[in-house]
Amino acid sequence: MTELSPNATPASSAGTPGATPGVRIALWSAMGCVVLALVCIAWIDRPVVDFAHAHTQGTPWIQHVAELPAPLFILAWPAFLIVGAVWLLRRTLPAWAITLWLAAGAVGVGSLAKQALKFVFGRTWPATWIHENPSYLRDGVFTFKFFGGGNAAYASFPSGHLTVMLAFTTVLALRHRRLRVPCAIAIALTAFGQLASAYHWTSDALAGAALGIAIGSAFVAAWRWWQSNRAA
Q1: CATH code for position 104
Q2: SS3 43
Q3: Which of 35, 73, 125, 226 is buried deepest, with most CB atoms within 10 A?
C-alpha cells in the first residue's frame, strides 16, 4: 500500500477525477490570483515598486528572505527521479515520501512552465539587475514584449520563485493539513521578499502563485485519480 497519510482526502467519486473540495478550492484560488494580477497591472504594480524602492529595496535580510525557494530549483528534479526510482523498485513508499515525490515533480514542471510563460509575455523587470535590462526604476519602462526572444532582460512575468514555492506548498497543504500554516508562512515570506526587494511586480507574484497552485493541484488530483482507479 502506497497511500498511508492519515489526513489525505479520498478521491472524488463524481465530477473531475481527483477533484476533491480541497483541490477545487485551490484551483479557484489560482483563478482569483489571475484576476488580481490583471487588476494589479493597471493600478497596483507601479505604486508598490515605488514604495519598495523608497523604503525596502536593497535591505540584505529582505533579499535573503526573497531567495527562500532557491533550493527548490536545484533539488526538484533529482528528488523526483530518486524517489521515483525507489518507488519503482520497492512498489511501496510512506506517505511523506509520496508527498515529496509529487511536490518535487510539481516544482520541476513549474520551473519549465514559468520559463515558457516568461518567453511568451516578455515583461520588463521593475529594476535593472541583469544584462543592463531596461527597467521601470532606471528607464521608466513598464511594458510587455510578447515573444521577446528568450532574452533574460524581458523575463519578469510570472515570478519563478512564487511559482515553485506555490507548486511545492500546494502539494504539501493538500495532502497534509497540519502543514498548511507553515506553508502559508513560507508563501507570505517569499512574496514579501520578492516585492520588498523590487525583484518582481505584484502581478508577477500573483501570476506565479496561480501557476504554482494549478500545477500542484494537478499533481495531487492526478495521484488521487490514479489511486482511486487502482483500488477499484
Answers
A1: 1.20.144
A2: helix
A3: 125
